[in-house]
Queue: 4 jobs
Job 1
Amino acid sequence: MVNQTNSKQQDAAQHLMFISGYVHRLLRNEAQRLNLRWTALMVLKDLQLLGAVSQRTLADIEQVTAPTMSVLIRQMESRGWVRRECHDADARVSLVSITPEGREELKRSGQLLRQKLEEELSAVPAPILKNLQENLGVLTTVIMGNIQSKFPAV
């Protein structure tokens, strides 16, 4: 039974690696075509999901250097998408949070990118899409739990 479970996990992992890589490249290329800054969108999504977090946490999540994240946050702040505040417990820590303008940009950009993904899914039969939606919901819940345990606020 353990080998069968491992085999199913390996098969699922293999499919997810292919699909996630494909979707990532597809959407990143579409963002570039639409002149949307990919990393800024990822940071906005991180902030929407996690709430206010430190710049260091954002740099860790996005796997960029602290100076790179500082530049990006400064650019996003100038556009009104994020705001920085000092952490109550440690004034040296800057917490970043998404603004209403940032949420609106994330929504607008998300709609454009979702259209591209919907085009890709148009050939998938409705019953398969329904099953996919249900299973991805479970997977999303598990992944969100993992993210929140790895990156608790501040």
Job 2
Amino acid sequence: MNKRYATVISAYAPVQEISDEQRKALRQNFKPLAARRLTSLPLLIGELTKNTAPEPADEWLFASEFGGAVSLDKYLGSFPNPSPLHFQNSIHPGPLDLINVIRRLPARQLTPMIGGENLLGNALLAALISPADTVHLVIGEEYSAWASEQSLGSDFTFGAYLKLSQKAEHAMAELVHEPEGNAPTVSTQETAELLAHQKPLTTGLPSGGAIRLQWR
């Protein structure tokens, strides 16, 4: 049985649009010039990960179905004068990578994960089997009308972050792999809702078994 301990958990429940007041508050995590460059998801990631205290040897996992699709939309809309910034941020892990670059946080490994129905289970399993002592798991999506209408982006903006350690000290929750377990699949959107309200979650794995997060 594989187990890790969540020492930091933060989440932002799904909404379609972040209000102007919320966006202004989220921008306070950054210098004004950097804040103006950030779309909704990196702004959320900046808030959710502000208490991470990462080390260079840690692993980062970024799990998202659509990743930097909003920046891709903005990049395509910038022609005939294409924006290098939006092009850079349109890569799949761009929303997380941009925050770590702004904060000058080196990382030995950043693993982007993409998927739909089984994304959460695969991301949690990857965190459990990682050789790193500490894994930072970030999940999230951001809404834009064009991307959503074209089925190229999420219908909601949300995010969640878990700092997962091999040590039980200061643990908020336990993450456990149950090879004989059985459970329905939980989406990343549902996960953000559950974690935002400090509720337990159990998700099934496509290869069999389940992963359970239980708050302490």
Job 3
Amino acid sequence: MARWLVQIDGDRFDIEELPYWFPSGEIYAVEENSTVFLVGSGLEQLADASKIHEAAARVIEDFYSVIYLIDPGIRRPSVGAVFRENDDGTRHGFAFLSAVASGRSKARASVTIAGSTKPERSRLTQAQKLLAGSQRNRHLQVALSLLSIPNATWPHYYRCLEEIESFLDAKVSEVGLCSASERSRFSRTANTPEASGTNARHGLGKFDPPQNPMSSADGLSFVRQILLKALSLAHAAQPGSQEDAVQ
């Protein structure tokens, strides 16, 4: 059957995450001879190759924002050529200019099934659930995009926390996503240049820094874990999703 395919360009280390985490849906990823493509009914609704290329770029941004949340060691690849496959299997392509993303280790391990390295597909993957959770609320969409910004710093981390708390309509510590002391340590570090340097949200002397400030890596890890929990809550709130909650 005729279909559109969009090639994803980048390091294999990064692009192989796509069919692992997004193997189904209106737009999903497949691997053919070590090349990864986006395919699906969501592409078939579009009129021409340029619109398909633009749509694929948005999908990759969404997919890799979630993948990065799961594993910060992953880098976002780029969208390559668009192909039209005919009923007889022949393909013709449309090229678009794009940049390719440049030993790393992964947070996830492959699941081996009958000699292969493909995960079970009976349920949605963790990434699919997290993306579905983010799509339930604009605050969560913004929070997710903030953490996927290259070289994000304390203002991004704190804004992410604010968006999560807007979704919750409460402080994260009040709903059990962290302790009050953890939240205070994070916010006081983010606010004070004595603790976080030039990336602080406020000027010298305005707030007291914590006795044990977080490093930037600690701050990212803290808000990452909070966002994972918030997205899990959002996904679990969807009808019929309780048995398939994010682990």
Job 4
Amino acid sequence: MKKIFLLSGALLITSSIVMADDTIETCANGMGTVIVGTVSGYKYCRANKGMNWWNAYAWCDAIGKKLFTLEDCQCSDTISNCAGLGSVNARDHLCPELMNAGNEWYVWTGTVIGKNDAYLITPSSGKIGSAGGYTNSSHPPLCK
């Protein structure tokens, strides 16, 4: 009888662990969280911790990926504020691919501004911004 109780308890614990893993999809051996693109459905990997841009670039490279760029925003003429994403004024635009992607943090992109800055995107709103320098901010990278 004791064996049955022990076996039942072990099965319950194991099933609850499996259920917990199913609620949050991870990437990079658990060091990142999957973000699904709103337009394409592509699964991107966002690091679970912030870092400067140089380390973000290296982190994506280390997991065999590249930083998300503004070209990955999946723009079309039917979405407002999308024209001109490749310009310096991209801060005034939105990234449709990451609108409502379910995360509130800014993420680093691989699209640079001048010699020492890169664009950031807020995955919850798709809003594009800048960090003010490669080393001035700590944000997680978004890798593709």
